[in-house]
Design goal:
mainly beta; four-stranded antiparallel sheet; about 0% helix; about 60% strand; elongated
Amino acid sequence: QVQLVESGGGLEHTGGSLRLSCTASGSIITIGAMGWFRQAPGKQRELVAAIAFGGRTNYGDSVKGRFTISRDNAKNTVYLQMNSLKPEDTAVYYCKADSFVGTEGFQEVWGQGTLVTVSS
């Protein structure tokens, strides 16, 4: 099994920055796409950013120009640099990874979530 461990959440003021990290460990064959999702109270989980193994990125409209996703394939780690934070960025942030499991292809793996709170 593959596990994801997230870190870097916390409390920040409006306009501040935070950096999230997520590392995959366990029985890894290879990790495909990785990404960050978030869920605010009373709202559906939404895509924040995703990055393919080769580095192609995709961002949610609300974070474009403020957040940057990157990854270190050698460390099976994905990062999310969050700048110009807004109160509406407050949410639990979840890491997701596509873990290659062999003949069955890729399996989604989710982290436990890390809370980001942005005060006004």
